[in-house]
Amino acid sequence: MSIERPTLEVAVILQRTANTGAGARWQAWRWELVDVVMNEPGFGSAPRLLYENESAQRWLHPGLKAELFKDDAEGYYLNATTDVPSWFVLWRMEEEATVAAEPIPRPWAVSLSYYDAGRWLDAQENVDQVPAPAEVLEWLNGFVNEHYVVEPKRRKRPESFRALTDRFGQPASISTDKKVGGGQVGGQGGAQGGRRG
């Protein structure tokens, strides 16, 4: 039995650009996310070079899915309520070249959840984000409005902040000053030291 999930078919555009400045000594190129767009049949199923010049390459990666899961409604809510709600894309470099002369990055997952992005970053994956368009945000907000329930926060006060009471329920205080009760040590009895004439 399959569970129908709200899903968008998308394509990811990644770009290779030349590094400039001091960083170019160690790495001549860097890859960055350019956009996430709605997938179209004409895109095909394999990555394809859109254009190339002496300073850049732009690749289209079709056939990815962005799914919404009910148990991640809070992650979508957190994204939808930021100043710039975004797509999050996890990508990994190929180990060996498959469609180009050199290895290129391949997008592995696309999400609209803050929690997905956080988990991927915690796992030290390559994650980039790009603003999501208005029609995608409308779709996302519809899902959030239907499935996200704000749970009241019940903050338990730490035990260390509870008021101290004595065995009769009266307020008590603790001092760090050391007080010695009873007799004194060293041959000075309480009776001798305690009387003054």
Task: Describe the protein in words.
The chain is of the alpha+beta class and about 200 residues long. The protein has one domain. The chain is about 20% helix and about 30% strand. It has four helices and seven strands; from the N terminus they run ββββαββαβαα. Strands 2-1-4-3 form a four-stranded antiparallel sheet, with no helix packed on it. Strands 6-5-7 form a three-stranded antiparallel sheet, covered by helices on one side. The longest helix has 14 residues. It is elongated and about 85 Å long.
Kindly summarize this structure in a few lines.
This protein has 197 residues and is an alpha+beta fold.
Q: Which helices and strands, and how do they pair?
A:
Elements: E1 7-18, E2 29-38, E3 48-52, E4 56-67, H1 73-80, E5 86-93, E6 105-111, H2 114-122, E7 126-131, H3 134-147, H4 190-194
Antiparallel strand pairs: 1-2, 1-4, 3-4, 5-6, 5-7
Helix pairs in contact: 1-3
Structural class: alpha+beta
Any idea how many domains?
1
Shape: elongated
In DSSP terms, counting alpha (H) and pi (I) runs of 4 or more, how many helices?
A: 4
Question: What is the H/E string?
Answer: EEEEHEEHEHH
Give the integer mean of the pLDDT values.
86
Tell me the span between the first and last alpha carbons.
98 Å
Give Rg in angstroms. 32 Å
Q: In percent, how much strand structure appears in the residues? A: 25-35%
Question: What does the largest sheet look like?
Answer: 4 strands, antiparallel
Q: What attributes characterize this protein structure?
A:
4-stranded antiparallel sheet; single chain; 197 residues; 3-stranded antiparallel sheet; 4 helices; disordered C terminus; elongated; alpha+beta
